[in-house]
Each structure stands twice: as C-alpha cells, then as structure tokens.
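REQUEST FORM: STRUCTURE PREDICTION
Request ID: SP-0412
Submitted by: Lab K.M.
Chain count: 1
Length (residues): 109
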Amino acid sequence: MLQMSEGSSLSEQSTEFEIEAGLYSKLIKKYERLNRLILNEGLKDVHSMAPILNGYEICGLYEIKQGKALKFYLEEEIKFQITHPGVSREDVLVYMKHMKSEFTEKYAA
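STATUS: Completed
RESULT:
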C-alpha cells in the first residue's frame, strides 16, 4: 500500500503512485488472461470435478487399501479426466489399468 512519507516531495509521491499503479495494472492483466484461459478451456468448475471411478473401484483395481496411495491414484484419474474432456467410464478404466505399473512405481518413489 502506498504510504505518504514526511519530507518527500509531491513529485516523489506521484512517481511512487505511478509505479504502484503500473504493478497493479500488470497483475490485473495477468489474472484476466488466466481467467480467459480457464473459461476457454472449460475449466471453470474443475475444482468440483468428481472422479469417474470411485475409491472402492480404484482399491480393487490396484489391490490397495484406502489411504495415501488411494489419494494419489484418484488424483491421477482426475488429471486424466481434465486432459481428456468427455472421457467415458470405460476409457478411464482402460487408462488406469494401462498405467497401473507406472503409477505404482511413481507412488513408491
């Protein structure tokens, strides 16, 4: 926040204000571009996206118990859904089976 300092001239204060206003303007433009990207890519509600396969299905597929590993696999499933809009349940199942060894290796690391 811009603060007036004693002893500084009006022109110094004006220059400080211009610099700060320029920084705010750049920041606003940056977030406007981010917002356009989110809207253009259909990611507006991505934060509330649910995995197509539930935790019980993932536990059965990967032969694991609920816990940190399950969280990891569900996150990988969501990443796939985000990068493949409109993906079917069967597509997700095929993908998760195909990636089983890679995900298991990745999680163990």
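NOTES: The chain has a mean pLDDT of 87.
Reviewed by: T.R.
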